[in-house]
Amino acid sequence: MQNQISAGSVERRAVISVSDKTGVTEFAAGLREILPDIRIISTGNTARTLDQAGIAVTPIEDITGFPEILEGRVKTLHPVIHGGILADLQNPGHLEDLQRHDISPVDIVVVNLYPFQKTVAQKGVTRAEAVENIDIGGVTLIRAAAKNADRVIVICDPADYQLVLEELRAKHGMLSFDTRVRLAIKAFDVTSQYDTAIANYLDRPEGEKFARHLRIVTGESVEFRYGENPHQKGVLYPVETTDPLAWYRFEVVQGKAMSYNNWLDLSAACDAISYIGGERPASIVVKHTNPCGGAHAESIQEALENAWAGDALAAFGGIVAVNRPIDESLAVQMVKGKFMEIIAAPAITPEAREILAKKTDLRVLINSALMNPMPSTDLSMKQIRGGMLVQEPDIVEVTAEDLEVLTDVAPTAKQVEDLLFAWQMCRTSKSNTITIARGGMLVGSGVGQQDRKRCCELAVGKAVDKDTGEQRAEGAVAASDAFFPFPDGPEILIAVGVKAIIQPAGSKRDQETIDLCNKYGIAMVRVPYRGFKH
Q1: CA dist 331 to 108, 336, 347, 353, Å?
Q2: Cβ distance 297 to 308 under 8 Å?
Q3: Whole-angstrom Cα distance, residue 48 to residue 69?
Q4: Active site annotation includes 78
Q5: Which residue is catalytic, options 75, 78, 101, 147?
Q6: What pLDDT digit, counting tens, does each position of 166-184 carry?
Q7: Are 399 and 291 spatial neighbours (Cβ–Cβ below 8 Å)?
């Protein structure tokens, strides 16, 4: 391991060239305070920013003897700069080269890159605009400094400025080997993600959703005590996305650390409430990634109560998401006679926090995007042995105009509203699925079964009120995530009072199911999409 150049032995040099100027003047001022004789070398706009802040700075061309050219495309690509960064000061040959060419070593490199990812995320961006935001010199500086981390400090994230200054101050201008290596790893992560974003952009044919190759780069992992089960280890990797409901955009305001299963269920709750949206107050209760309760209503209090009552037995220990802020009255309702693992909401009042804080094991997460939740537009990926299955997300919006009446009897306007709600609950549950809804409330669901008849039986069984014995399917509607292969499933639903059914149709025996509905005066409509969720 090489030793860093000690303060005072030779001139120390720092190259600072940043696209994101956040905190750079404060960092440079702190660096100058700790190392008063350090020479700060900088480029174009960064040099002007530092100079205007009263920080002595040497323009890059004064070091290289060559001006910036090609409208800034070439600034730092010069042997005087990269020789100073890459030199191994324990290697006599390197020292001879430095002396022969009058090159001084560079100790610190502070660089962040042109905002390529932000540029291509904008609507209507042209290929020329994207290409112009591909950083060359910055990436080269970062990689050179990270390669020589035994001696050189590389900083590519403004979040690390304070950490570096504190350690330099505490260690008289030195930085530990462990810190330099950690910064170097981060630097290679940054350039790796940057190159991946560029390759993904260029690799996707015009108008195509999928790139030719799948490239995924993640951020630093979060470790859990265990995975799905205690004998399995588990971690969570952040992936860059514009999704406002991404897990790392939630604020955990109360409760112990989230687990592997907690994040999985919360994601499912976000999916389910996103299909309902934010126009009306709504609540979702999820258990093992499936909605066991869901409702929209005139008030969030009513929506929560109806969602919980949909299957109070299954709701015990579930994940609850609401699309309205938690105030004092809602918080009281949440803790009274209910056991929840997690509550997710767009906001929470101080009074509500005090009430929920009494439930010390309850996790409370806040994300303002839940006020108007929208389905994620990210690609859907599932791992199989030896590969990844990738598909477009199921974000198609289904409205009353999309429904085709298959029977002699058409559904009423109120039934159409419930049919659409039942369909939203159906498409977010594991196939095969049957859901039963009434009055904007999920009253029964049968999920994850190998045959649709059994799904109907389970949904009907769940629709029985556990306190009163009432069959809540009476006068309700039902949804099926795929066609009925036989009329035996609808027979079960009709027998308990279901009055309208929504399904994708497409079975060879559709007419038998339609004839059955006509026989009993039941409305059946076709939705033009299948709703499988494996």
Answers
A1: 52, 9, 12, 8
A2: no
A3: 17
A4: no
A5: 147
A6: 999 988 888 899 999 999 9
A7: no
DSSP strand E in 310-379: where? 318-322, 340-345, 363-366
Question: Would you call 233 a catalytic residue per the annotation?
Answer: no
Task: Please pick, among 21, 288, 508, 534, the residue that the annotation labels catalytic.
Answer: 288
Rg (CA), the chain: 30
Angle subtended by helix axes 79-86 and 137-147, to nearest 10: 30
User: What is the token pair recorded at 106?
Assistant: 């560079």
Tell whether the model's pLDDT for residue 2 goes beyond 80: no
Distance (Å, whole) CA 118 – CA 277: 27
Instruction: Spell 153-176 as b/e; 16+ CB within 10 A means b.
Output: bbbbbbebbeebbebbeeeebbbe
Structure tokens at 275: 């299909």
The 10s digit of each residue's pLDDT in 263-273 is 999 999 999 99
pLDDT reported for residue 516 = 97
Question: Look-up: residue for tokens 């919006």?
Answer: 397
Cβ proximity of 150 and 177 under 8 Å: yes
pLDDT tens for residues 6-61? 333 467 899 999 988 899 999 999 998 899 889 999 888 888 999 899 988 888 88
Please give the pLDDT value at position 4.
Answer: 46
